[in-house]
From TrEMBL:
PANTHER family: 1,2-PHENYLACETYL-COA EPOXIDASE, SUBUNIT C, PHENYLACETIC ACID DEGRADATION PROTEIN PAA
Example GO BP: phenylacetate catabolic process
Protein name per its UniProtKB record: Phenylacetic acid degradation protein
SUPFAM superfamilies listed in its UniProt record: Ferritin-like
A single cellular component GO annotation: cytosol
InterPro entries: Aromatic_CoA_ox/epox, Ferritin-like, Ferritin-like_SF, PaaA_PaaC, PaaC
Length: 250
């Protein structure tokens, strides 16, 4: 149970932290249409968070529902990857982070639709429809800006070079990932990695961007609860109301 519980937390925490980050971009998009799109992606991810954390709480059996898991855990108890907690920065940074995550997220959800766990299959089947749109949208924008003006291409290349070191953690597997693969709950990480890298290579080529080496050194630790200090600031804002007024409802 513990391995599956941790695996569910990883999925829910990734979606939750990225959703919170995107919510901070509301009103800051380069165009009204893109501002609305970022808000919609954030809401989609928040809905997915609820499904993952609800199941995690039920599986744990300690009375913690989705809200308690989201608002009453400290940073070291979060299992999100380091990529999603990176600063929003410029729009190029936000978009590049989103595309890297969307690519991994899409192929993972596709694999999870074949999970041996019925509940996970159901969550993945609901999520894949939204994630398909997320990947198509972010991929299209990467191409438009990468193959755009000299300035937009330079900003996208800089963002890619700086964020790439955080992308590899999504493909690193530990005992929890191994247990899920052995039980047929999750797809093999190696197969997802190849699919993701192939898709990224196609998009970056079309965008006239130079893709960094997949074998470059990668940051790691988020999946095990070792985060940057930035996650603490994200959670401080997100959890303030529930921490200040426990059990608050309206």
């Amino acid at each position: 149970m513990d391995a599956k519980f941790q695996y569910l937390l990883r999925q829910g925490d990734n979606a939750l932290i990225l959703s919170q980050q995107l919510c901070q971009m509301v009103g800051k998009g380069p165009a009204l249409e893109e501002d609305m799109a970022l808000s919609n992606v954030a809401l989609d991810l928040l809905g997915q968070t609820r499904m993952w954390l609800t199941y995690a709480g039920e599986l744990e059996g300690k009375g913690r529902d989705e809200d308690r898991l989201a608002f009453l855990r400290d940073a070291h108890d979060y299992r999100s990857c380091l990529l999603v907690e990176q600063p929003n920065g410029s729009y190029a940074d936000t978009l590049t982070r989103q595309f890297l995550f969307d690519t991994w997220h899409y192929f993972l959800m596709d694999g999870l639709t074949k999970s041996s766990d019925e509940r996970i299959r159901e969550i993945a089947a609901k999520s894949i429809k939204e994630v398909t749109y997320h990947l198509r949208r972010s991929g299209d924008l990467v191409v438009r800006l990468g193959d755009g003006s000299d300035k937009s291409r330079a900003m996208m290349q800089t963002a890619l070079d700086e964020l790439w070191m955080y992308s590899g953690e999504m493909f690193l597997y530990d005992e929890i990932d191994n247990a899920m693969v052995e039980q047929g709950v999750a797809p093999a990480v190696d197969s997802i990695r190849k699919q993701c890298l192939d898709h990224m290579a196609d998009i970056f080529s079309e965008a006239t961007l130079t893709m960094p080496s997949p074998d470059a050194w990668m940051q790691r630790g988020g999946k095990q609860g070792r985060h940057s200090e930035r996650l603490g600031f994200i959670l401080a804002e997100m959890q303030f109301l529930q921490r200040a007024y426990p059990g608050a409802a309206w």
